[in-house]
Amino acid sequence: MQVAGAGLSHMPASSVFRDILRKDGVPGIFRGFGTSAIGSLPGRVLCLTAFEVSKDSVLKYTEDSDMPEATRIAMANGVAGMISNIVSCVYFVPLDVICQRLMVQGLPGMTVYKGPFDVIPKVLATEGFRGLYRGFGMAVVTYSPVSALWWGSYGAAQHAIWRGLGYGDETEQKPSHLEMVTVQAAAGTMAGACSSLITTPLDTIKTRLQVMDDYGEGRPTVLKTARNLLKEDGWKGFYRGFGPRFLNMSLWGTSMIVTYELIKRLSVKNE
Question: How is residue 105 annotated by DSSP?
Fold first, then answer.
């Protein structure tokens, strides 16, 4: 939806889904899934490792401060989220470029690739090394604040929910596994909902930058892409695909954080 031309730009998500299903069948819906799923694993490890190291450092640095515990936790999560995103962008931006190219191949004016390993040499041949990092600056500017917001919102929401349920630092009773999963899932969903409001317009611009083959006049830039998008569809064009993205970020946030927290608990227990 974010890169659709005039024929698809005004179609709702359900219509785009049916159009892809009619033209390419079920495989068309999952185009680029394997590259994204398998390729993202090392990036997630890098991201979460950077997050934990940064979070521990901030918590230790603010240990003797007078700020409220909720603020301290939210700030530590936010700073760590921003740092971990900057580190992971070095890995994720080239992967994102490859996945986006695979997803839009077949659309008018788009290059056709044989697979993920065919994207790299073709991009290098036409644009050089920086072609793999097209949209890197936009990704850092977009996702670093959003990552800070997501993790900060998650930490604050989880802290507030636990306090609302009567669990505090001095509470002897420990929550059950079901309560822990429920609270973490709720906090992750809330954080994802907040982030999607900010992410969608910026991600629409970034995605267009990454998949444009026809430059027109000069190389594509953030301002040029934003102006074209505004000219084509007005302000609502920046929120193309907001519904699917809202669901994606909420579901991703819930599944990711529940799995992540479970692994953390099991690791501590085993130690």
Answer: B
